[in-house]
Specification:
By secondary structure, this protein is α/β, with parallel strands linked by helices. It is built from eight helices and 18 strands.
């Protein structure tokens, strides 16, 4: 009853583990079998390895965290040679999150990923475009559509575009990447925030601003998912502070076909099994043969 179709991709349930919060799945084997999830989105990968940001990277806030990791990762070649084989052994959907600082970074990354058996590329367009003075690809409809079109043209896999809440109206961004050939969209990425160390009288993060995630952004994410689901005809994946089966159901009722769970995995490593049981109980109580029956029931 929890099975879903995300476009052409079948998932055993609507729970996808969000990029950057679940590693490649290995880390959670000490808690439960990660094959119970619907899919795993890999740690964000770039064509070249990245060391990430210096200084403080994580800062707790009420009902959330600020992070300034800087997409630290071993690079796509390393992933293909090392982590991919282990990730593939997990009996669940496999999504690779792809970032880049230039058009060529994205395109070379896609060509390398074409050699792998994966279900989706999740295109992270919240990366600085170094040729445009550091402007993020995903802040403007035009640049978001252009990079999506280029990636889709070269990808052998369906492309899910991860949308930023910090740029043009998110429904407009979603429509621009749909028109460019995206097979799905996921949202929201982190909301830009800031923290101050009042003892040192300085910003906590070297980059000053950081990404806010966790339950504090859930109402914002829910509103944006609802707006996007009204604007596009491709599947929508909702994320942003999900911490319970009730949150999952709310996301699906406003139009999400599936959801991603991220920050709250850190708070409670056993959260996913609990949510899955609660979703099954809900479907039985409501006499639903498929959880997809509730998708977009709120217009």
């Amino acid at each position: 009853m929890l099975e879903i179709n995300l476009g052409s991709v079948f998932l055993k349930n609507p729970l996808i583990m969000a990029s950057g919060t679940y590693g490649y799945g290995e880390e959670y084997k000490r808690f439960y079998d990660p094959s119970i999830v619907g899919a795993i989105s890999s740690k964000g990968l770039t064509y070249h390895p990245k060391d990430g940001n210096f200084g403080i990277r994580i800062w707790e806030t009420p009902a959330g965290i600020l992070n300034s990791i800087g997409l630290e990762n071993p690079g796509i070649d390393h992933f293909c040679q090392e982590e991919y084989a282990e990730m593939k052994k997990i009996d669940t959907g496999l999504i690779v999150n792809l970032g880049g600082n230039t058009r060529d970074d994205y395109l070379r990354g896609v060509e390398r990923l074409n050699q792998l058996d994966i279900d989706f590329i999740e295109l992270n367009i919240s990366c600085p475009n170094v040729k445009e003075g550091g402007l993020l690809f995903g802040l403007k409809c035009q640049s978001a559509g252009e990079i999506t079109r280029e990636v889709v043209k070269r990808s052998k896999h369906p492309v899910m575009v991860k949308l930023s809440p910090n740029g043009d109206p998110v429904a407009d961004l979603a429509k621009s990447v749909e028109d460019a050939g995206a097979a799905a969209v996921s949202l929201i990425n982190t909301v830009q925030g800031m923290a101050v160390d009042i003892k040192k009288k300085k910003a906590v993060f070297d980059n000053v601003y950081a990404g806010l995630s966790g339950p504090c952004i859930f109402p914002i994410a829910l509103r944006m998912v609802h707006q996007v689901a009204q604007a596009v005809d491709i599947p929508v994946v909702g994320l942003g502070g999900i911490r319970s089966a009730e949150d999952v159901l709310a996301m699906m009722m406003v139009g999400a076909q599936a959801v991603q769970i991220g920050t709250m995995n850190f708070h409670d490593p056993m959260l996913v099994p609990k949510i899955l049981q609660d979703l099954e109980d809900y479907c039985q109580k409501e006499k639903l043969t498929s959880i997809q029956d509730i998708v977009a029931c709120i217009k």
